[in-house]
Amino acid sequence: MPNKLLEVEHLKKYYPVTRGLLSRHVADVRAVDDVSFHLIEGETLGLVGESGCGKSTLGRTVLRLEEPTAGKIVYQGNDIVSWDKSRLKTIRKEAQMVFQDPQSSLDPRMTIGDSIGEALLIHGVNDEKERLERTQQLLTLVGLEPGFVIRYPHELSGGQKQRVGISRAMAVNPHLIVADEPVSALDVSVQAQILNLLTKLQRDLGLTYLFIAHDLSVIYQVSDRVAVMYLGQIVELADRTELFEHPLHPYTEALLAAVCLPDPHQKRRKQLYLGEVPSAMAPPRGCRFNTRCYKKKEICETEAPELVELRPGHWASCHLYR
Q: Which pTM value belongs to this model?
């Protein structure tokens, strides 16, 4: 049996909406609403969906950078939801995050060496010479020269900054990396370099990735399994090849139909959904995709479907398969 590194059960993250002088609670933004999945040690789970669907919030909540409203986050058999800040420090060495914008994730007043060395200092590497040697090793690991330790972020290109962000995440030898759209702000040629680097690090160091992206071509390249998220919920989860070749949920079909085709002579696929994403503060009743779904039935407007296994390892939440 494969070892489950992380198990997320019925996770919720709501942001309260208040109004008036007394800050009266009037509603909640349901950014993550009853999400369950697991991560097998050494795999990459791709998380894909439109902007605003809750992908980044889910990744941050899994690492307790955002406090969950409800649910369980079980890391290596321990539910970390109830852990206090001092106990969470042990998890910080095990699980790290690579952020979307490499510019904003680096302090412009600190050298690259200080930015990476800070993580080592926090986790007990007090010897300055040892920190410098370890920092130079990390820079070499991600394909940068050791001399980058004396540079500042404004002296680096976008790809170099993201490499620094990856090296900083690797500083404490983590097992789990949550990569929040790590290549979306980069040029296509640089994207390929960063993706190849992440793949190499996973192969050499046995890392486990939760890889968040909205680009399906990137998800296909890096993922072992893929979870599709819509309006705070996972609507389909399957092996990468299975999901791309045999999508079951209409929303997944719509995402695949929206992908740009490289052949200008090939006929573009029909658009499979209409309108804008509904507000997470007032999601539609029943199936959350029913307001945009061209296959919807009467039950879709009144009853929310459950995420069920329709094929071996292929899960979807849709009344079409009831």
A: 0.91
